[in-house]
Design the sequence.
C-alpha cells in the first residue's frame, strides 16, 4: 500500500486533502510544515508527497529541494496559490505535478492515482 505525505500548514486544507484521498488504497501521513514532514520522512518510506509551497518553519520549496537530493525520491505534487515563474522556475523542474489553489479535489485524486501507477522516478521499467 503506497504511503502519501500531505504537508500543508492550513489545517482546513490539510483535512480536505486527507478526506479526498481517504477512500483510496493509501496510508496517509499529515504534517503541518516541512520540519514535521522531514521527521515523518526519517521514519516512514513515502511514495508521494503533496505539499504546499509557502509554510512556516521549513517551506515546501526547501522541503522539495531536500527530498530531491536524496537517493529515494518520492513523487511530488506541489500546491500553491502563488507560483510566479521566475521565483520558482528551478523548483518547478523538480516536481511531478503542480496543482494551483484552490485545488480541484477530483483532479488531485486523479493525479495521485496517475503518479502512483507510474514507475518510480529514475526507473526505466
Sequence:
Amino acid at each position: 500500500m503506497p504511503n502519501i505525505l500531505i504537508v500543508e500548514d492550513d489545517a482546513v486544507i490539510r483535512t480536505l486533502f486527507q478526506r479526498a484521498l481517504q477512500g483510496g488504497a493509501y496510508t496517509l501521513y499529515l504534517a503541518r510544515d516541512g520540519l514535521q514532514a522531514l521527521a515523518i520522512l526519517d521514519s516512514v518510506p513515502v511514495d508521494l508527497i503533496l505539499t504546499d509551497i509557502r509554510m512556516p518553519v521549513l517551506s515546501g520549496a526547501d522541503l522539495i529541494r531536500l527530498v530531491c537530493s536524496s537517493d529515494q525520491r518520492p513523487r511530488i505534487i506541489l500546491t500553491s496559490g502563488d507560483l510566479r515563474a521566475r521565483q520558482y522556475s528551478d523548483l518547478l523542474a523538480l516536481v511531478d505535478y503542480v496543482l494551483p489553489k484552490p485545488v480541484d479535489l477530483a483532479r488531485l485524486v486523479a493525479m495521485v492515482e496517475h503518479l502512483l501507477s507510474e514507475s518510480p522516478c529514475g526507473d526505466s521499467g
